What we know:
The chain is of the alpha+beta class. The protein is built from seven helices and 20 strands.
Amino acid sequence: MQTTLKAALTFTGTGLHTGKPVRMTVRPAAAETGIWFKRTDILLGDNMIPARYDSVSRTPLCTLLVNRAGASVSTVEHLMAAFAGCGIHNALVEIDGPEVPILDGSSVEFVRAFLRRGLQAQDAPLRTIEVLKPVKVATDAGWACLSPSTGFSMAFHISFPDAAIGTQEKQLNLRNGAFVRELSDSRTFCRQSDVDAMQANGLALGGVPGENAVVFDGDDIVSPGGLRHEDEPVRHKMLDALGDLALAGAPIVGHYEGHRAGHAITNMLLHKLFETPGAFRMIECSANMAEHLPGTGVTRGEIPQVA
């Protein structure tokens, strides 16, 4: 069955790229609503933005959603990953600015708040997207694919010239609370050269090494406090991918594999899935199938103690 929050929650913080303060309230929503964003600072025109793959305006640095009237909200991937990882299918996100607060650079503060507040089961069947045959997209930067599986699993591979990052790969079956335990506290990361370039162009103005991002510079970890996991970068890439895949509009039953894949590639993959005849089908999720999805049965006790 579908799930929403028991009651509203409010988060305050700054946007990673704008550096501006933002207030965001996540409210319960009726069954069959899905996830929507409402720009409360837009008083005229359409301020409702659906959290769907076909509302994404592709950018290299974050996931940006735009409605037909041009209203937008960016950096939604960590929040979307928290929804997917906690098994929340319906919610209204009211936000008074153009960017979701970055908080600590991961999903864990959203996850902790959701599980503390509690989830409400809804009297409506949960439908899932079952991958029936492999689909793949590739660019000069990397590639990603979806293939059939009995649940939802993910494999990811990254490679950076900075020795402190290097080559990392990880594979996880994301059933039950695996996202909460293994990925939710992994923070966004970048290279010092990228930070310098972004800030020179008016971006990453809210980034604070050690507080909401891990910064690497060659052999060194610039951020105070070091890493939460030895392989935190690849874990964060998996977190991002889960958030971007959540924009499919329903949980995916399949195996995702990414090789140096970013937000744009994962969004391209969803377009390819839905445009390929016979690549998927929508099915009503049985109780047994639900046991293989990321958010089923998750508890507060599974939140990593390092976060």
